[in-house]
Amino acid sequence: QVQLVECGGGLVQPGGSLRLSCAAAGSIFSYNIMGWYRQAPGKQRELVATMTNGGSANYADFVKGRFTISRANPENTVYLQMNSLKPEDTAVYYCNLRFFGDDYWGKGTLVTVSL
Questions:
Q1: Bridging pattern class, strands 109-113 and 91-99
Q2: What is the pLDDT of residues 36-95, one digit of tens each?
Q3: How many CB atoms lie within 10 A of CB 55?
Q4: Any idea of the CA torsion for 44, 25, 50, 93, to the nearest 10 degrees?
Q5: Cα first-last separation, the chain
Q6: What is the distance between the alpha carbons of residues 5 and 22, in angstroms, rounded to a whole number?
Q7: In whole angstroms, what is the distance from residue 79 CA to residue 81 CA?
Q8: Sign of CA dihedral 43, 113, 93, 89
Q9: Cβ partners under 8 Å of residue 15, min gap 6
Q10: Can you give the pLDDT at residue 73?
Q11: Helix or strand or coil: residue 109?
């Protein structure tokens, strides 16, 4: 059984920062990819950032230079440091874990960027 739990979402003003955390528990293969996706109302779920267990990161263009993904592999935890937040970053952010072709998802945490 695999379970992912996100935390760290909330309300932040434009230009502010938040750090999201996701802790994965269960039977997890060591060679995996963890990352973050987001979905705003009326829009498709989109990739934000991912990182392999070896530390290779992939970022969506719209967050490059603003967001940083990191991992603590022994704890199967992934973080997303979000800086210079914009109103268009408002979305539900979902933690994702992938290995052996299977995807596991957290329930999501809401990030609202507004005055």
A1: antiparallel
A2: 999 999 999 999 999 999 999 999 999 989 999 999 977 799 999 999 999 999 999 999
A3: 10
A4: 40
A5: 40
A6: 5
A7: 6
A8: positive
A9: 84, 85
A10: 76
A11: strand
